[in-house]
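Running log. JK asked me to keep both predictions on one page so they can be read side by side. First protein, sequence followed by its tokens:
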Amino acid sequence: MYEALKQQQSLGFDCVVPIPLSPDKQERGHFNRTRILANELAALLGVRVADLLSLSAPISKRQFLSAGWTQAEFEYHYHQLLRVDASVTKYARILLLDDVCTQGSTLNCALRRIREAHPHAQLTANTAGQMLLKSVVTDDRLIVGQKPALLFTDLSPETR
């Protein structure tokens, strides 16, 4: 991830924001892979990890979809549960981090929530791996990373 950022000369961030672990997984002691990655990447970038995102209730994409709900319905519910800390406005350049991007649901919701709370922030999303990208970034010109790391830049509505 760091190398993809470095290759794109995109190292100037104020913080790294990990996608939050569902509260039920946290209570059961699951490893928070995204937080671990965020700690390492933030150390390499010389910035802090800012836990600006949280979930107000448990949600599992796998269980949601297995129960017959659609991807759109999952995104709606995830978006409703996702909270952004008011201190987000302290940061002009935010690196949003997820461990894996399968269909982009959590990243999409997080980017939308942060954009709602801080419309002028420069947002970049980075993942350790990808499964499917098209549902997140519809304009291929915004894709600036390469496999296995994935990096999107400036997903503001003005650039779509």
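And the second, directly underneath as requested:
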Amino acid sequence: MNSFLAELAGTALLITLGNGVVAAVVLNKTKAQNAGWMVITTGWALAVAMGVYASARISGGHLNPAVTLSLAAIGKFPWSDVPKFLAAQFLGAFLGAIVVWLAYLAHWPVTEEPAIKLVVFSTAPAIRKLPLNVLTEAIGTFVLMFGVLAIGANTAPTQSGLAPLLVGFLVWAIGLSLGAPTGYAINPARDLAPRLAHALLPIPGKGGSDWSYSWVPVVGPLIGGLAGAVAYVKLFGA
């Protein structure tokens, strides 16, 4: 139960801060409106670091089904705990999205474009070509998983408590370098659960939730995460 709560709380914090910075930048009449991609990527990097810091001592700070499943696939996490972790991650992401909705209640009615409201909750491609969008998400998550294992293999940052911050820097680099084509979900829970929240919440003029795209930020990260984990083990061993 402690690990379930840690993953839930960490993922909720991740989405609250991550989707929150998107809301700050894209919604009308916020003090950060139009602050740009650098602010979004920085906010997400800090969101990941804080979420991992909040949960790592208890659960390891996965916060991402692609991470959990990839670790299980290479024998670094018990399969018996996978359902519990995935449930916590998706529920935490859903709750985090609700917090963002509440924090920006005054700004939904003054933001007219449905697509802008949706992008607060879920990702969308700059150019919609689904096979290529899957490839982009897979590459980003490959780098994430490879990098997470590399950071974890170095005892100094782990012992000093710097590992979560370094993971945040890794996500920052992914966002800046590889995130622009699709918005870099690199985490199935980060996209799917908030997308569901968008569909269910009473957001004025919100439009549809673009379910035809929703499989891309699930499948791409799962493929990329597994490939990144396997590549790291093959190159450097367990």
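Observation for JK regarding the second prediction: The mean pLDDT is 97.
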